[in-house]
Amino acid sequence: MARRDLPFADSTNLAIVGPLTQDALAQLPGRFAAWAASPAAARFRFRRSAGRWVPVRAGELAARIERAVVHVPDDLDAAQVEDLVRGLEYSELAVMLILTPSTAAINLSHYFGDGPLALVAIRAILSGEIPGAPRETRFPLVRALLATGQWRPSALRRGRDLLHGMHGHFAAASWSRPGQLTESVALSSVRLDTASLRPAVARERETDPKASTLDVLTSLVLRSFAASLADGADMPVRMLVGLRQHLPEGLSTSGNFSTSAILGSLRGSAWTPAGAREAMAAVTSSPTLVAAEGVEAIAHARARLRGRPVDGGSPLQLTYNVITGRVGADRGDFRPGEPQSAVLLMLNRGPLLGPHCTVTVTGSDYLVTTVDDTGLLDLPRFEDELRAALLPS
To answer: Cα separation of 105 and 295, whole Å?
Structure first.
């Protein structure tokens, strides 16, 4: 089954933002309508009867905007809002804004905006930014939300968002210290530049002349995770490298992206730069690059969510992902890692499915972003260990 043939309900983005001030909530429908009427919205499609996918005609999405804004009572919790979205997602409109008296939920089908493109859309809806607007006018509402409320990323229910065994959490890139996204999900974000990595790279090249900057960073990140694990704990490492065939039309990047065999464990493997390089080479040559598409990917993800991984690995694992090169929608209006850009985080939903680390390489910067739903990683200690490893000897 090709990805384009997957049913509509298999994958959705849901961002729940709140609590919000009344002023912020009052702005959202107008922001939503402005985005829907913009040329940027033309990249999105909606579902007609009989399940036929049809490109949005000029003005058509804007004409349906009133049906896409749903007001609900404030006594619904996050799970009930998710249920509401699940019930409404079969409607004609694939983009939906759901408002309670203090919370906004934005629903966007992954088919219409997977990964970075979804972030572009959700960011535009929240901020009122239309691509091409002067930089000084961008993100006013996002700044207000960050100042007066909090981002509360919402995981989707099991069986949803499983195209590739992952689901998207959204966070603001401006978070620079470890923090709690929810009671059970913690976030760490560390930005490094090439200069800060240079001493460590020079040290490693004394014994491994082939070590690249990314080899060394991978080695240091995984060793820092091992040092920050709870006593007696260990977890397998699954590595994903690059990002290409899982992006929707209109996005471009370098590299490939796929699940792979588990390549070792945090404490049970040395994770030298050479070991990291071999692991990445194993991923890029793996037959799972082909097997990860379509039905097989969904079966794999569902097996993991049931706690029975199809590859024999543990559902409690650290997933390491490297996004290299420039990731951008049509005119380059999304660059991961830029200030005020959202960061794409991939994290499997479910009990103890493990943390996920994404390294986004943009020019000379490396953004190391980690989410953990297990509580087994001490993320402040991880940051301290990583920075200590970068100090000149």
So the answer is: 29
Please give the Cα distance from 121 to 36 (Å, whole number): 10
Dist CA 330 CA 336 (whole Å):
14
Residue closest to 67 by CA, chosen among 96, 89, 45: 96
Distance CA 40, CA 17 (A): 22
Q: CA–CA separation, 257 vs 246, rounded Å?
A: 7
- pLDDT tens string, the chain, 393 residues long: the values are 222 222 222 234 555 555 566 777 777 777 776 766 666 565 554 444 444 445 555 555 555 555 556 665 555 555 555 555 544 443 434 456 666 666 666 665 544 444 444 545 565 566 555 444 333 333 333 333 333 333 333 322 221 222 222 222 222 222 223 333 333 456 677 878 888 999 999 999 999 998 888 889 989 999 999 999 888 777 878 776 544 333 333 333 333 334 445 677 888 888 889 888 877 666 555 443 333 333 333 334 333 333 333 344 444 567 666 654 433 332 223 333 332 222 222 222 323 345 767 676 656 677 777 766 567 788 889 999 999 998 877
Work out the angle at residue 352's Cα, subtended by the Cα atoms of residues 178 and 295, and round it to the nearest 5 degrees. Answer: 110
**DSSP string over 297-350:** HHHHHHHHHTT--TTS--SS-EEEEEE-S--B-TTS---TTSTTSEEEEE---S
Q: Which burial class, exposed, middle or buried, applies to 73 when counting CB atoms under 10 A from its CB (0-12, 13-18, 19+)?
A: exposed
To the question of domain 3-153 being in CATH 1.10.287, the answer is no
Domain locations in the chain?
3-153, 168-389
When the candidates are 1.20.1070, 2.60.40, 1.20.1090, 3.30.559, the CATH number that belongs to 168-389 is: 3.30.559
User: Whole-angstrom distance between the N-terminal and C-terminal Cα of the chain?
Assistant: 53
| pTM attached to this predicted model | 0.48
Q: Do domains 3-153 and 168-389 have the same CATH topology?
A: yes
State which amino acid sits at residue 46.
F
